[in-house]
Target: DUF418 domain-containing protein
Amino acid sequence: MQSLSAGGPKRIIAIDVLRGLSLFGIFLVNMLSFHSPYIYYNPYEWWKTSQDLAAFSWVDILVQSSFYPLFAMMFGFGAAMQYEKAKQQGQPFVWTGIRRFTFLMVLGLVHAFFIWPGDILFNYAVCGFLLLLFLRLSGRMLLIVGTLLLFLPAIALSLMLIMAAYMDPYSTVYWTDIASVSASIAAYGSGTYAEITTQRMNDWLNVNIVDGAFFYQLISILPFLFIGAGAYKLDIVGKWTSRPKKTAFIFLVFFVTGLLLKGVPTIFDRSNIAYSYIQDSIGGPILGVSYAALIILLCSFAKSYHLLKPFAAAGKMSLTNYLTQSIIGTLIFYHYGLGFYGQITVSTGIWLCVTIYAVQVIASNLWLERFQQGPFELLWRTASYGKRGKQG
Model:
């Protein structure tokens, strides 16, 4: 395996650009949850105007479930990189990994309960603990295991949902949870901080714990960590960077396949959970891989490399920027902030997202001109390695 730190600056930049642009994609989807009770309604019934429906459709097909897998892959990629560095230095990684993921788990719970309930850090940390048991596997084996864990349950559940829809069409129809929607609007739109915190906890439990949701979260996230770890060990980024024609072909194949699968609900029935599940669990990751191939391909050419390079700073500070997005988003929409919850359109939310992210890119570049890493990255590193933080 070839080290990324040895003679591969474009590869390093490509990795940070992947993180930075994945963070933007996640932010676009999260914005829907910042300003509306997204987890409790059927979006194609909730948004009434043609402009809102069109804007949501673009986000649903091109962004939803395609960037969080990419971000999770980069998380596994980073864990494997730390493991290999420790191995090269003859040091054990297991206790470092435990400290890293424990810090992330605690930070995730604080984030979920006191800032925003859509936290992903806690889930990543739990999956990170499981990944520790398998990091000694070869890159090829990690890719195989991750791919099987991703697609076998997804295909099986898709077939079950299709059969259920065939036998009883009403059993797989999207429905809006009116009671939960009303509770969310009441709490986030006009509640006190204590009432909002209670609602945050309820939302987090509904998404992560209730009715076996935690197991679903595991099978939805863990495979991407395996794939990302395998990609690091096999130096996939380096190989794709050095072979632009092959990378372009990979992009085209995965992009067309992913786009077709993401369009299944639009082609057949948007209100059917079976088709939406295929769209998100199978089409989403495949389209995400095409984005990764495209970004790496662009980073292999001088002109596009220089255009994308500023986004690398946002990726290098992805933890800080992720948490900052939640703080800014909730301060804009929750009652203890500006109180715009439930009052803006999808298009307005998208433009807000673009504006905030653009400011983050500029701020990240300015910050990294003076410091080596972001404030939360520094805290994470210190918690992992101690005051001296021997590894990056």
Summary: Residues 1-7 have pLDDT under 50 and may be disordered.
